[in-house]
């Protein structure tokens, strides 16, 4: 049960004021609750930055935005900063983690990550898992060389190399072409805009204007690429955030409606009911079931 108004944000700590956090830990189930590195992992939370959990040994059951996943090593889990997640259960495991803020990421990689999210956990083949773990080990090595005059660029650039390797693995296994069509590029651009503006921009025409195309062409491109209209994408993104806040925070429905850009609270309530088939309060009460 949430005890705070806001969803807990798991911050980068220790020496990671540079906006890059990297670590490798072995966790025994018997020691989990007393391990300071694992504090709060069983409670719903967001991570600061784009986070990559690479399970090297063991298994874990996690919940990401109301979806439950049973994960066995070797697997990569990518978590977008907006996603809410928690650990439900696990065996003794070795896990490699890397979290990077936007300012340290190659802009092209940010675009790919925005497109991938939400990404299902990615099981690794033997060959690619070896490459990923070797690259991670190099990043971890650089992270411990604080006295190196090129410490920051070594850590940043090696982390970007690892992220590029992970992204390429996601794209290859999901058979995503690197040569996008015009409609796919428009859809990607729209989704990136939507992710940062869903609470303030509700009209397809406004997104079209920002992309310098007609509303008709935007809707045609997005529907051709995804099978859904621009309006449906906007609504789905708003409802997802509403679900996160209803389930994982103590904000009132009225507060949530206002945070998501709705001064008309009854309208928001009707929208939520129409989209989910239940009232906002009924959805919130499911957390007690």
Q: Name the CATH homologous superfamily of the largest domain.
A: Regulatory protein AraC
Tally of alpha and pi helices: 10
Report Rg. Answer: 20 Å
Beta strand %: 15-25%
Task: Pick out its properties.
2 domains, 289 residues, Arc Repressor Mutant, subunit A, Jelly Rolls, single chain, 10 strands, alpha+beta, globular
Description:
The chain is an alpha+beta fold. The protein has 2 domains: 8-173, Jelly Rolls (Sandwich); 182-288, Arc Repressor Mutant, subunit A (Orthogonal Bundle), CATH 1.10.10. Helices cover 45% and strands 19% of the residues. A 5-stranded antiparallel sheet has the order 2-9-4-7-10, with helices on one face. β5 and β6 (67-72) form a beta hairpin. The mean pLDDT is 89.
Provide a short characterization of the protein structure.
The chain is an alpha+beta fold and 289 residues long.
Question: How does the SSE layout of this entry go?
Answer:
Blueprint: E1 8-10, E2 20-27, E3 45-47, E4 50-57, E5 59-64, E6 67-72, E7 75-79, E8 85-90, E9 93-100, H1 107-116, E10 122-123, H2 126-143, H3 151-173, H4 182-197, H5 204-210, H6 215-226, H7 230-248, H8 253-259, H9 265-276, H10 280-285
Parallel strand pairs: 1-3
Antiparallel strand pairs: 2-9, 4-7, 4-9, 5-6, 5-8, 7-10
Helix pairs in contact: 1-3, 2-3, 4-6, 5-6
């Amino acid at each position: 049960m949430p005890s705070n108004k806001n969803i807990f944000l798991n911050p980068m700590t220790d020496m990671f004021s540079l906006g890059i956090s990297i670590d490798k830990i072995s966790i025994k189930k018997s020691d989990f609750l007393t391990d300071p590195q694992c504090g709060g992992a069983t409670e719903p939370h967001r991570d600061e930055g784009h986070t990559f959990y690479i399970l090297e040994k063991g298994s874990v059951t996690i919940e990401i935005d109301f979806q439950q996943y049973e994960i066995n090593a070797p697997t990569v889990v990518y978590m977008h900063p907006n996603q809410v997640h928690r650990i439900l259960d696990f065996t003794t495991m070795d896990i490699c983690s890397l979290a990077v803020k936007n300012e340290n990421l190659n802009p092209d990689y940010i675009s790919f990550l925005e497109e991938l999210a939400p990404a299902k956990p990615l099981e690794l083949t033997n060959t690619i898992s070896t490459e990923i773990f070797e690259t991670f080990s190099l990043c971890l090595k650089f992270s411990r060389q604080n006295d190196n005059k090129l410490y920051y660029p070594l850590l940043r650039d090696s982390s970007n190399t690892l992220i590029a390797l992970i992204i390429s693995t996601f794209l290859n296994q999901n058979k995503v072409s690197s040569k996008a069509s015009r409609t796919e590029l428009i859809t990607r651009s729209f989704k990136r805009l939507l992710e940062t503006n869903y609470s303030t921009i509700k009209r397809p025409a406004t997104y079209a204007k920002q992309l310098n195309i007609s509303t008709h062409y935007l809707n045609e491109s997005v529907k051709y690429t995804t099978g859904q209209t621009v309006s449906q994408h906007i609504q789905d993104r708003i409802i997802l955030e509403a679900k996160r806040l209803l389930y994982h925070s103590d904000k009132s429905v009225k507060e949530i409606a206002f945070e998501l850009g709705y001064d008309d609270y009854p309208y928001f309530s009707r929208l939520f009911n129409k989209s989910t088939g239940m009232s906002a309060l009924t959805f919130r009460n499911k957390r007690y079931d």
